[in-house]
From TrEMBL:
Annotated Luciferase-like domain residues: 15-260
Keywords, sorted A to Z: Flavoprotein, FMN, Monooxygenase, Oxidoreductase
Enzyme Commission number(s) of this protein: 1.-.-.-
Protein's name in the database: LLM class F420-dependent oxidoreductase
Record flagged with keyword Thylakoid: no
Signal peptide: none
Organism expressing this protein natively: Pseudonocardia yunnanensis
GO molecular-function terms, A-Z: oxidoreductase activity
Domain of life, per lineage: Bacteria
Length: 329
């Protein structure tokens, strides 16, 4: 089939049983070597099964800091971080630090947080939905406000909200990218998510849509986001639009099904691209036809580096224009 020039293909890691840093690094290096645009990871402390005793949690931004020094080309980020996990001034500093460590390759994905059991298991407060949206909006105002405050500004940056207060910060964090790292906001909510994204997002992520093989639900979410932008006088085309696609690609049906089994959820498999490289390519094309210019391939088996190599060799050239493949540093 004809490819869609300009679609960015990225790898999103969410290992079913957690991971160690060396395993994450191996997958990130395989992603870079295969020619993908970016390596992202989830920001979770529990897995798909919260009662899985084998799950090994790792901190998202600690590992991204390590990857920043051990990769050389791929962009790095979280899809998406939970605003409940970190105070906004601290998060702004963490992300700016990793951006500097990477030479300006970091992107910040941020959402409300949704996994109540995860918060309870780690002693993290989990406010009601409305408050989580309020906190997300205040966090974005603070993070982008700190990043945009000019050097030498005598007044510094201040913010007074219902949940956070910043008082005259004259030494805000300085990311390597200007004016700041791209901000990714996404979700399936019909009202507050697109409205917040319209104000703050450099990329709107239509999130995972169960059973939406044709991309029609994704297309509608992008349309809602566009209307939210227009409502505040913003050109919707200023922002990128992205989608998440669980993937299990194989050179034989048996190999594809083996990789699909690792997902561990029939619901996830029902929306995944499972099959040959040509079939996976077709699913990505459907997302592009729905308006996505960026697709995150959701990977669950962190040890299956051959999976990354196969997609890089047999799918990537048909759906995207990417930088030249490069070896690991």
């Amino acid at each position: 089939m004809a490819g869609h020039e300009g679609v960015r293909l990225r790898v999103l890691m969410e290992p079913r049983h957690g991971s160690r840093y060396e395993e994450i690094l191996a997958l990130a290096l395989a992603t870079e070597h295969a020619g993908f645009d970016a390596f992202f990871r989830s920001d979770h402390l529990l897995g798909v099964d919260p009662n899985d005793p084998t799950y090994r949690p790792t901190d998202c931004w600690t590992t991204l800091g390590g990857l920043a020094r051990e990769t050389s080309r791929v962009r790095l980020g979280a899809l998406v971080g939970a605003a409940t996990f970190r105070a906004p001034g601290l998060l702004a500093t963490i992300v700016a630090s990793v951006d500097e460590m990477s030479g300006g390759r970091v992107e910040l994905g941020l959402g409300t947080g949704w996994f109540a059991r995860e918060h309870a298991a780690f002693g993290i407060p989990f406010p009601p939905t409305g408050e989580r949206f309020d906190r997300l909006e205040e966090q974005l105002a603070i993070i982008t406000g700190l990043w945009r405050t000019p050097t030498g500004d005598d007044a510094g940056f201040s913010f007074e909200g219902s949940h956070y207060r910043v008082e005259a910060n004259r030494t805000p964090p300085r990311p390597a990218q200007g004016p700041h790292p791209p901000v990714i906001i996404g979700g399936s909510g019909p009202r507050r998510t697109p409205a917040i994204a319209a104000r703050y997002a450099d990329e709107f992520n239509g999130a995972l849509t169960i059973g939406d093989a044709s991309g029609e639900q994704l297309r509608e979410r992008f349309a809602v986001f566009a209307r939210a932008c227009e409502a505040i006088g913003r050109d919707p085309d200023e922002a990128r639009r992205s989608a998440v696609l669980p993937v299990a690609c194989g050179v034989t049906p048996a190999q594809a099904q083996r990789r699909a089994a690792v997902m561990g959820s029939e619901l996830m498999r029902s929306t995944a691209a499972i099959g040959s490289p040509a079939e996976v390519t077709e699913r990505i094309a459907a997302l592009a036809d729905a308006g996505a210019d960026t697709v995150y391939l959701h990977i669950y088996d962190i040890h299956d580096l051959d999976h990354i190599a196969l997609i890089g060799a047999e799918v990537l050239p048909h759906v995207t224009s990417t930088p030249e493949r490069t070896g690991a540093r």
